[in-house]
Amino acid sequence: MSTEKALEQRSGNKCELCGSSDDLFVYEMPPVVSPSAGSCILMCPTCDTQLANPKTMDSNHWRGLNDSMWNPELPVQVMSWRALTLMAQQQSWATDLLDMMYLEDDHLEWAKSGLPEPERPPCLDSNGTELQAGDNVTIIKDLPVKGSSMIIKRGTAVRNIGLTEDPLNIQGKADGVGMVIIAAYCKKNK
């Protein structure tokens, strides 16, 4: 039996996430090594479009996740977890459903592997200019160094900065000492 026929039989010819019966297709859940009913779901174009653009997700369309998250088929559970995780950024009901849901550790890793990478906010200097690794900046305010009596004076140049995990901070050497500096207290050199 083909994957599509197996999924149609499993789902009753309905989208396994929202229950729609319009224009269904086989969605191969990343990462897919060899497509089979164990790594695919039957999905409608509306679910596919909204999952590809999480900012446009319509919360009313996703109310069916309350049922699909309990589906006995692992691919449906994994995809429900992904959709709820994306929806939880906008809707508290999705967070509540996620709190009720349980996936084994390896299944949770599969679910997480299919989520888009979160956009990293830009690191901005005092003027709102975006800072990049390797830029040179000037300190705009006298800054005390935590854990020391040292003060980095206004006008001190910091060359070849590095970005940190926190977009509010940069790292670099000021007066020969490596440190993390608040980006808002720096001005990018031209």
Automatic annotation (TrEMBL):
Organism of origin: Sinobacterium norvegicum
Taxonomic lineage of the native organism: Bacteria, Pseudomonadati, Pseudomonadota, Gammaproteobacteria, Cellvibrionales
Protein name as catalogued: PhnA protein N-terminal proteobacterial domain-containing protein
Alphabetical list of Gene3D superfamilies matching this protein: SH3 Domains (2.30.30.40)
InterPro entries assigned to the protein according to its UniProt record, in alphabetical order: PhnaA_N_proteobac, YjdM_C
Domain PhnA protein N-terminal proteobacterial: 6-52
SMART domains reported in the protein's UniProt record: PhnA_Zn_Ribbon
Transmembrane segments: none
